[in-house]
Specification:
single chain, mainly alpha, Chorismate Mutase Domain, subunit A, Chorismate_mutase-related, 82% helix, binds ligand ISJ, 4 helices
């Protein structure tokens, strides 16, 4: 237990902190599972691209995704810039995987 938690003692604040952290842990677990499913799909897209001589990145598709995600974020009161950065972070990793799959296929 951290110093701050010790200081909170057996209080309502500590109980609330624990409950919130329990929800955060559940959400983090859901995020990991959702990302794992997304990467399963993108790996398959990578194989499709490599076998059909398509480039690893598709900037036109990314532009549409970013616009859509920014709107969704805005509607959900999430910072659209953060949502865009988050998507770009994931997409960069996906493209890296696609490049590796293409190289493996000898493209
Ligand atoms: C998955 C794809 O490949 C890349 C990765 C994307 C993604 O992770 O959403 C989107 C576009 C592409 O740059 C795709 O073309 O659909």
């Amino acid at each position: 237990m951290s110093e701050a938690e010790t200081r909170l003692g057996d209080s309502e604040a500590l109980n609330e902190l624990k409950a919130l952290r329990s929800s955060i842990d559940n959400i983090d677990a859901a995020l990991v599972h959702m990302l794992a499913e997304r990467f399963k799909c993108t790996q398959k897209v990578g194989v499709l691209k490599a076998t059909n001589d398509l480039p690893p990145a598709d900037p036109a598709r990314e532009k549409i995704q970013i616009e859509r995600l920014r709107q969704l974020a805005s509607d959900a009161h999430l910072d659209p810039d953060f949502a865009e950065k988050f998507l770009n972070f994931i997409v960069r990793e996906v493209i890296r995987h696609h490049e590796a799959i293409a190289a493996e296929a000898g493209n």
